[in-house]
Amino acid sequence: QLQLVESGGDLVQPGGSLRLSCAASGFTLEDYAIAWFRQAPGKEREGVSCVSSRAYTHYADSVKGRFTISRDNAENTVTLQMNSLKPEDTAVYYCAVGRLLFGICILHSGEYTYWGQGTQVTVSS
Questions:
Q1: Which residues pair with 49 in a beta bridge?
Q2: Residue 46 DSSP SS3
Q3: Which of 40, 54, 71, 95 can pair with 103 through a Cys bridge, CB separation 3.0 to 4.6 Å?
Q4: What is the pLDDT of residues 12-36, one digit of tens each?
């Protein structure tokens, strides 16, 4: 059974940092593009960042310079390091995987087949 297990969500003050992790079982992450999406109450789901099977990365404008996505193929995990957090970063964060063509990644949810359960990130003072 394919499974993605997310962890690392927490309550943090503005300006703080969190590291989210996504661990895969039942398949090998190195063959896939991996993306992080988030959804806040009353808002549409939005793409945050992605890393391709060739390790190319892409970020939403709202998180550029603050978030970093990375993959560890040996551990079969993907992480999202989040720094300088803002209240508008508050959301449920989901990791997702898909087998994209051309070794790319894009922030479009329809391209991703498997999804984690989500982890809550709350940025508040």
A1: 36, 59
A2: strand
A3: 54
A4: 999 999 999 999 999 899 889 999 9
